[in-house]
């Protein structure tokens, strides 16, 4: 029998001597009450030691490696603003650390503190101005059957004079496709739908778009008619009727702002990471 304790960031296993007629855990629990001992035995069942490393058991998850708060801070910073960091919120940040196979008792509190101290997250985070309104969802019958399309831009000019992006989101799976563009024409929209939607996910049943000239053109209408794609136009004064893609646009722009700060012309290179 043994007990596990932390020393200098490493979890070690210390044997407990067993006397005749003595329970194996008695010596290790002499300084606690019976109620505390029961609680400790109950909580210790969630953990196990493998090769002198402490792991936390899970009902539906693999073993999570237990690390110290200092090691956890390093993990959170790498996920939050490392090479592939996306400056996600506190709950998402803690969940990503969990998905990477790590656990420490204060991971949620530490993630919340890190986000609060992040300058970019505070400057470009959501600021609620009006009360939330109930949503009216548009139901999609099956995956990749109904897409919403919209444009982002003009943005700071990048390589190749690119300053726009066309964004598409599937209403069922919320999958996002995007492509940077130098010009926004009906031919470009046709090429995007064919390459990024039809060739990858099959021909959709319907596409929801706004009343931009690129979409409301004879060329794009003929393309959709030829493929038997139903076109639905959002109300001109009510863009919320295509709210799914509008929400995605806001998230993409917010992530780009957090990652780039003043280097806004590099949004072209960071767009795949934002997606």
UniProtKB/TrEMBL annotation:
Pfam families: Integrase_H2C2, rve. InterPro entries: Integrase_cat-core, Integrase_H2C2, Retrovirus_Pol_polyprotein, RNaseH-like_sf, RNaseH_sf. One of its GO terms (biological process) is DNA integration. Residues 139-275 form the Integrase catalytic domain. One of its GO terms (molecular function) is nucleic acid binding. Coiled coil: none annotated. This is Integrase catalytic domain-containing protein. It comes from Prunus dulcis.
């Amino acid at each position: 029998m043994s007990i596990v304790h932390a020393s200098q960031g490493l979890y070690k296993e210390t044997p407990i001597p067993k006397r005749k007629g003595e329970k194996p855990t008695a010596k290790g629990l002499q300084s606690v009450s019976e109620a505390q001992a029961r609680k400790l035995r109950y909580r210790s069942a969630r953990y196990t030691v493998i090769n002198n490393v402490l792991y936390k058991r899970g009902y539906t998850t693999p073993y999570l490696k237990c690390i110290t708060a200092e090691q956890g801070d390093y993990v959170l910073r790498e996920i939050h603003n490392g090479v592939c960091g996306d400056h996600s919120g506190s709950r998402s940040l803690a969940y990503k650390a969990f998905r990477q196979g790590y656990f420490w008792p204060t991971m949620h509190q530490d993630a919340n503190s890190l986000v609060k101290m992040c300058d970019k997250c505070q400057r470009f985070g959501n600021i609620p101005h009006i009360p939330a309104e109930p949503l009216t969802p548009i139901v999609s019958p099956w995956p990749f059957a109904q897409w919403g399309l919209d444009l982002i831009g003009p943005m700071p000019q990048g390589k190749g004079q690119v300053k726009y992006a066309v964004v598409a989101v599937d209403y069922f799976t919320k999958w996002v496709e995007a492509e940077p563009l130098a010009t926004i024409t009906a031919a470009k929209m046709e090429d995007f739908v064919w390459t990024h939607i039809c060739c990858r996910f099959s021909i959709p049943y319907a596409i929801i778009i706004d009343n931009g000239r690129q979409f409301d053109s004879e060329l794009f209408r003929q393309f959709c008619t030829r493929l038997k794609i139903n076109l639905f136009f959002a109300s001109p004064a009510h863009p919320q009727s295509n709210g799914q893609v509008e929400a995605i646009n806001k998230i993409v722009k917010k992530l780009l702002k957090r990652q780039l700060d003043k280097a806004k012309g590099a949004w072209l290179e960071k767009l795949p990471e934002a997606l």
